[in-house]
Amino acid sequence: MLKNDKLDPRLTTLLDELKPASPRDSRAAARGRARFLADAVSARTEQRHSIWTIFQQKEKFAMNLIVSMLVIVGLLFGGSAAVSAAQDDLPNEPLYQLKLMSEDVKLWLLSDRVTEIQMLMEQAQIRTHEIAALTSKGITPSGDLTLRSQERIQRALQLAASLDEPAQSATLQQIRTQLQTQELLMNQLQDDSCAECEPVLQQTREMLRNQLNQIGSGPSAPQSSPNQYQNQNQIRSTQTPLATDNTVAPQGSCTPALDGTGEQNGTGQQSGSGNPSVRTPMPQNNNTTNQNGGGTQNDNDKGNENGPMPGSGNENGQGGQGGKP
Amino acid sequence: MISEQDLLTQARQLDSCALAEIYDLYSPRLYRYAVRLLGDPCLAEDCVAEVFSRFLQALRTGRGPGNYLQAYLFRATHNHIVDHYRRQPIMQELKDNSPDRENTEQSADLNIRQHRVRAAMLELTSVQQQVIALKFLEGWENEEIARGLKKPIGAVKSLQHRALTHLQKILLNDEA
């Protein structure tokens, strides 16, 4: 036993008997060394290759964040060359989506309603100019441009409706002026544009005209009341007008049928079956003739099926007062 | 000669020269340690290969030894040996291998005694086994053992004392 930390010599002898180790086989040792070094070399190679992989995978989230931040910063400050370059792009060009994104971000960053309205109208005007630019190049513009423009104008009108009275009148006046400018531009394209472009152009004209009708002839017009824009917006999203009901009496907010006959759908907020976004605005007075000249009304109407214009008349003459409720 | 710390630093970058030097420096010692406790050169060679393979894997994944490379490698070797004995008890090995290994009576006796000691050591805890093996087979000082096991010297001495007492009880009582 262990006494005074002295090791029993018999135990020492037994432990010492483990010490002699059979000599190592040199070939086995060499094989082990070669295998270890080969593994080391391949590990080093893999490590080199995996640097980028690690960067891609492990840091993917961080990279996404950084990229997103860079894009946002670029969009915010307009410092990015790509964002700047995209501002002149047309819908058929590669950076156009970037342009749309930058517009959304710009809007999102605005807190002042008046500034936001200005921005919205500016963007609507850009869409109109894009339509004009494409038409002048002989390219048929997409109906999406009209829809985007309309969406911006509608948002601007809704925001304007929420303003206090003096500001509201001034803002509506500005909107009206801008819409008239856009409408003028569209009308100028009437003669020069290509035949394929005409439906979209007509649709845009109708849309602009109806937006002008919504605003009315002056800032104090009854159509410019806040509730009207809000109600119209609700109608657009919910109503499904009946296209076959010929017996509905004309109402202030009725919408013509799709077939261009001038028959009213009896829209209002009561009934309807059909997407308002594909209805064609028609004169409220059930007149089946085109006031711009006979015979073209139906064609124009067919080409304008994307124009949601509830509660508005369709007079191709200037002023657009006939469709007001 | 390059220090262990420098070798380790270069090894972390998977430097082939450093890794080769580490292998040349430590593999003979690890082999000797393994063959003493396993009693089989082939098993010992496999053990060394496995330890270095794990070492390489640890380096690749950014783990591996902190400061003491030698202690890390011996610990890994010992763990491998313990695992081996868990999978394959020593008495089985004694029965199978001893008669075929040595033909002479003297060698056979030595082999049997060695197996007895190994079997006795396996009754110790893993840390006690390491302390006894490093101290009495490898000739390490208590300070080195303490550093390698990351324990205070007092704890190492205590482990050593309890391990020797236990070994004496097993081996010398058997003899008596």
Task: Offer a concise description of the structure.
The complex is a heterodimer of chains A (325) and B (176). Chain A has eleven helices and no strands. Chain A is an all-alpha fold.
Describe what this molecule looks like in 3D.
The complex is a heterodimer of chains A (325) and B (176). Helices cover 57% and strands 0% of the residues of chain A. Chain A is mostly helical. Chain B has 176 residues and is mostly helical. Mean pLDDT of chain B is 84; it is low at 92-96. Chain A binds chain B through residues 1-2, 5, 7-8, 10-12, 14-19, 21-22, 24-25, 28-29, 32-33, 35-37, 39-41, 43-44, 46-47, and chain B through 14-16, 19-20, 23-24, 27-28, 31-32, 35-37, 41-42, 45, 48-49, 52-53, 56, 59-60, 110, 113-114, 116-118, 132, 136-137, 161, 164-165, 167-169, 171-172, 175.
Distance between the first and last residues' Cα of chain B: 50 Å
Biggest interface reads:
A-B, 32 and 42 residues
Could you tell me the strand content of chain A as a percent range? under 5%
Q: State the shape of chain A.
A: elongated
Stretches of chain B where pLDDT is under 50 for at least 5 consecutive residues are 92-96
Q: Structural class, from helix and strand content of chain A?
A: mainly alpha
Question: Main traits of this protein?
Answer:
heterodimer, A: mainly alpha, B: 176 residues, mainly alpha, 9 helices, 81% helix, globular
Reconstruct the topology from this structure.
The complex is a heterodimer of chains A (325) and B (176).
Chain A: H1 9-16, H2 26-57, H3 60-77, H4 81-86, H5 96-109, H6 113-136, H7 143-161, H8 165-192, H9 198-215, H10 226-238, H11 297-302
Chain B: H1 4-12, H2 16-38, H3 41-60, H4 69-87, H5 90-101, H6 105-121, H7 126-137, H8 142-149, H9 153-175
Helix pairs in contact in B: 1-2, 2-3, 2-4, 3-4, 4-8, 5-6, 6-9, 7-9, 8-9
